[in-house]
Amino acid sequence: MRLLFLAPAKLLSEQDKRLYCTIVGWFHRYNSLRWLRRLSATADGPVYLVTALALLGLSEKGQHFFLLLAAGFAIELPLYWLLKNSIRRTRPCHQALGLKIDFEPSDRFSLPSGHTAGACVYASAILAVYPVFAPLAFAWAAMVGLSRIGLGVHYPLDIVAGAALGIGAFGLVPATLLVA
Length: 180
Fold this sequence. Notes:
Blueprint: H1 2-29, H2 33-41, H3 45-58, H4 62-87, H5 114-129, H6 134-150, H7 156-171, H8 175-178
Helix pairs in contact: 2-6, 3-4, 4-5, 4-7, 5-6, 5-7, 6-7
């Protein structure tokens, strides 16, 4: 019975590594590292705080956005740390996959992608408060995830898991907070 489960998991892992190598190879072929670093940095934690604080003063819906974002991150961050430190998947840049990676991540483990999870929490809050900007926010979140693969620090499935975590965590925000 265990062999039936292991074969698909191994196949999925191999496909994940192949797709990773294809994406990283494509970005490196076009010398995109500087662009990828900048894009990835737009999903660093302080950026969320700065933009949320700016919206407090610039928008009548800013307080609602700030509260939703805080609630979403209050749910997402503990789950992220629990998953990352339980699963302990080695980052691709720390494995011998035949690719030269010039970017060093802040921690050792890759699953789930915290940048992608945070970007999806942020995009979900945008959807709830400023729905007209939601397509741009989710496109940005997808590009953040892609940048993390291109930088060599995440596999594609790490990105999918991060997106699911961020959107799922925001889905757990109490309904009373969702109403302005």
